[in-house]
Amino acid sequence: MRINTHLADMNKAYLFAEIAARVAEYSKEQPPHEIIRLGIGDVTLPLTPHVAKAFSDAALSMGTPEGFRGYPPYEGYDFLLDAIIRNDYAPLGVTIGRDEVFVSDGAKSDTGNIQELLSADARIAVTDPVYPVYVDSNAMVGRLGKRTATGYERLVTLPCTAENGFAPDLPEDAPDALYLCSPNNPTGMALTRKQLGHIVNWARAHGTLIVFDAAYKAYITDPDVPHSIFEIEGARECAVECCSFSKNAGFTGVRCAYTVIPRELTATADGRTIRLGDLWRRRSESRSNGVSYPVQCAAAASLDDIGRAEINALVSHYLANACIILDGLKQAGLTCYGGVNSPYVWLKTPDGMSSWDFFDMLLRKAQVVGTPGAGFGAAGEGYFRLTAFNSEENTRRAVERIISTI
Ligand SMILES: *Cc1c(COP(=O)(O)O)cnc(C)c1O
Q1: Which pTM was predicted?
Q2: Which end of the chain is more exposed for a tag (fewer CB within 10 A), N or C?
Q3: Quick one: residue 206, left, alpha or beta (phi over 0 = left, psi -120 to 50 = alpha)?
Q4: How is domain 53-304 classified at the CATH fold level?
Q5: What atom of ligand 1 comes closest to residue 257's alpha carbon?
Q6: Residue 353 to residue 15: CA distance in whole angstroms
């Protein structure tokens, strides 16, 4: 057989595997303190009571003749589509139709799968540093060409650093698609209305698709940061938006997300005008049988009045931790970004240290694990990510230890 060599040639030194290996190596040496992990982007608080009850009630109903349901509708049950439209979009003044919302098992799947709508030789742009899924999913199918020292032959990378305020400088030679994540993982920085408006205008002028990852929209506290790209005029003609229940409602283990593809988003091929939403529907109907009923009931519960109040408390907990990290490290003299509209704090390593040297120093001197910025792309070198996904106590202890180390 002939295998997919693009897949075989993928970078194997996966960031979190390397971190785990270094932590395991150090753990053998009997460190003076227990290690505190502010590294991985997974939530730590349990599902809220209202959501857990809806989940379990729905599961039990599946065991009754009246309540049993087989295959769900491919795009999601109407009750969830309506709850999303009513709670996530109507309050923003954004009108979305049922036929524009597609429920799935995760924003990782959606942002990874969306490239299937593009031609095999489409040019792809990502911000750097970047959530690796956008790059990997395109690399695996051969769209990015050969791997180079810093990326891929055919990948356009747009650095986002302190120098440009973590907003990409847009190329004249426009790509077919640009992946954007705001609030951003890993930098924790969010695009303002004005910045996003500029990018939408550029995308419309060049016929570029924006894949907008809004997984962290629940963390937005700044009124000048849009919760949806569809708050921006013209975005319906150039953008899809991927949202998730993972980081707000704690669904990282439950699995539920959705993608919005507006009707106006079209492309011309062979003289025909084709809606991207129709392509996505066609693709999803062949690839998936949808998301289970109990999961969709739990997701809908997170959007009703009781659910929203509970979820706000979860997000507030993580934002309070981010604030502890941000305030503590700034007072200690570190230069920090993010942490205000996001559960991530992105710090500049002191004295020009490399990301991995700083990682080793924190691990060995403070017994704190974070994520080296260089692991998210070349422009992440010299930066370091700390996450708010922990208890308040551990967050405080970690910050104290970091301060006494640097
Ligand atoms: C966590 C995260 C997601 C969410 O993925 P799910 O598959 O829905 O859990 C999406 N995008 C980014 C950038 C993330 O960090």
Answers
A1: 0.97
A2: N
A3: alpha
A4: Aspartate Aminotransferase; domain 2 (3.40.640)
A5: 8
A6: 19
